[in-house]
Amino acid sequence: TTNAQQCAILEFRGARSVSEADVDGISEMFMTYFHPVGYIMVERAQIDKVISEQGFQSSSLTEAQMVKLGEILNVSKVVVGTVSMLGGEYQVDVRVVDVELGHDIAAEGASFNGNYRTNVSNLATRLANKLALATPLSPQESYAKGKKEYDAENYAEAVQWFQKAAEQGHAEAQYALGLCYYRGEGVQKNYAEAVQWFQKAAEQGHADAQRALGVCYYNGEGVQKNDAEAVKWFQKVAEQGHADAQYNLGLCYYRGYGMQQNYAEAVKWFRKAAEQGNADAQCALGVCYAKGNGVPQNYEEAVKWYRKAAEQGYATAQYNLGWCYERGNGVGENSTEAAKWLRKAAEQGDADAQKALNELGY
Questions:
Q1: 263-274 and 243-255 helices cross at what angle (nearest 10)?
Q2: Which residues contact 361 (CB under 8 A, 6 or more apart)?
Q3: pLDDT tens for residues 142-193?
Q4: Which residues neighbour 181 within 8 Å (Cβ) at sequence distance 6 or greater?
Q5: What angle do CA 110, 111, 116 make, to 5 degrees?
Q6: Which of 104, 174, 254, 358 lies 20 to 30 A from 140 at CA?
Q7: Going by DSSP bridges, is the β-strand pair 40-41/75-86 parallel, antiparallel, or unpaired?
């Protein structure tokens, strides 16, 4: 039996046009940077000893001899490379052979005539990632690797790991993969594909995925717009205390999307989200108090909630708070404070705030 944690770099052979020194240099660089996750690399001296004992020629190993060496070394994977010259450039091709299967499971190549270390390092890293992806891992391990790559903004690599975990039913990975498709990170933006993965995670009770699925139905992204279906998902996750979904549900009640318009219910859900610090909901609750929708009109309460959202940098709330200071609604009239908040909103591109500033002479 083979040890899945062992890997051996058996040989790098060169074409006639490539010097032995060049082959050795590229081989040594590759060995320096080839670190597949989950594998221990066998020492070169141990490999050379077995090659010598078997009477093999290290520069011309056959496929059968490679597999034989892998069995003797008790490794699961062996690595071999070739170096040639094409049009004045080095062409380096490296492949990984599975000892048990007796054939290649991963391969990478690169052409270059400068920056040898960088090019060989990138080649080694790409092949190591391919080998790691071809190695059985738990969905938790695959997701963790994807999260690490995502946090490092290596989105294409993250997608590969998320996909691996998602296909094994890992809900967090399914949601993460859906987000990558939704945002176009590491893959081409594809709302329909995002919806498929959100749906899988949502059906496992993943709250963020349930809310994301609701947003897709609400906006008609990747699915036909369906307000009632959006409300179904918002309701499901809002009842779990998810602030963003509570705001979304409140908005549906406020506008009468997917249900009968009901300002009082809107206020109820806006308040739940606002009390958790959701700036959208804080501003919306302020609007309800300012207009008397679902609650008695109360400018002091409106100012309170506008201020909470404005202090989080929410442009609409900054404009609304500036407007209250300009007119003295719920707060003492104060043109300096009005200008301060209107300017903050205008700096974020709020056209109404810029217009109000102009009217104030700022």
A1: 160
A2: none
A3: 899 899 999 999 999 999 999 999 999 999 999 999 999 999 999 999 999 9
A4: 187, 189, 190, 191, 193, 194, 197
A5: 90
A6: 104
A7: unpaired
8 CB-near residues (< 8 Å, 6+ apart): 41, 42, 47, 69, 70, 73, 75, 77, 78, 79
Angle of CA points 224, 213, 210, to nearest 5°:
150
Measured CA angle at 58 (ends 56, 63), to 5 deg: 75
List all residues 6 or more positions away from 240 whose beta carbon is below 8 Å from its beta carbon: 207
| Neighbouring residues of 216: CB distance < 8 A, sequence distance ≥ 6 | 182, 191, 194, 195, 198, 222, 223
* Mean pLDDT, residues 223-248 taken together: 96
Q: Report DSSP state, residue 42.
A: P
Strand order in the sheet with 103-112: 40-41, 3-14, 75-86, 89-98, 103-112
The answer on pLDDT for 198 being more than 80 is yes
Closest CA to 108 of 85, 88, 129, 89: 129
Strand partners, 192: none
Whole-prediction pTM: 0.66
Comparing CA positions, the residue from 225, 169, 216, 219 lying closest to residue 195 is 216
Parallel/antiparallel/unpaired status of strands 40-41 and 3-14 = parallel
Q: Give the C-alpha separation, 262 to 255, whole Å.
A: 8
